[in-house]
Design brief:
This protein has four helices and six strands; from the N terminus they run H-H-E-E-H-E-E-E-E-H. The protein has about 130 residues and is α+β, with helices and mostly antiparallel strands. It has a single domain, classed as Nuclear Transport Factor 2, Chain: A. It has a six-stranded mixed β-sheet, with helices on both faces.
C-alpha cells in the first residue's frame, strides 16, 4: 500500500478497534474499505465489507466479552503495526497478539491478527 495522505492512520486503527471492543457493527463497517480483508492468526481470510459485516455480527453475538488492548503502535507508510493482547472468556481468543493494519483513503483495508512471536514482531517492525 502507498503513502497515506488523510487522517492519522493510528487514530483510524484506534477507532476501528474501539468499534470492535464495543461491538459497534455499523461503525466498524463505516471504517472498512469496500474490499476490506480480515486475516486471522491461522491465515484464514474473509474478504469484502458485506462478508465482514456478517462475520463480525456472528463474532459479536458469540463473543460479547472480547476486547483488544493495544500496548504499542507504530506507523510506517500506510500501515499500522500493533502489539497488545485480547481478553475473552473463549481461551483461544485470550492472550497476547500482534496486529497489522493497512490503511487506505482513511479506512481500514486490512486487519490482520498475528501470533506474538519474535519473528512476527520483526516482520511488523515491532521491537
Amino acid at each position: 500500500m502507498g503513502e497515506h495522505q488523510g487522517r492519522d492512520p493510528m487514530l483510524i486503527a484506534l477507532l476501528f478497534n474501539e468499534c470492535i471492543n464495543v461491538g459497534d457493527l455499523d461503525g466498524l463497517c463505516a471504517l472498512m474499505t469496500r474490499d476490506h480483508v480480515f486475516i486471522d492468526m491461522e491465515h484464514d481470510e474473509v474478504r469484502g465489507r458485506d462478508n465482514l459485516r456478517d462475520s463480525w455480527s456472528r463474532f459479536f453475538r458469540n463473543h460479547a466479552d472480547y476486547r483488544n488492548r493495544f500496548l504499542l503502535m507504530k506507523f510506517t507508510g500506510a500501515n499500522v503495526s500493533v502489539m497488545g493482547y485480547s481478553t475473552c472468556s473463549a481461551e483461544e481468543l485470550d492472550g497476547p497478539a500482534l496486529w497489522g493494519i493497512g490503511i487506505e483513503d482513511d479506512r481500514v483495508a486490512e486487519w490482520r491478527v498475528w501470533m506474538d512471536t519474535p519473528g512476527n514482531r520483526k516482520l511488523l517492525g515491532i521491537n
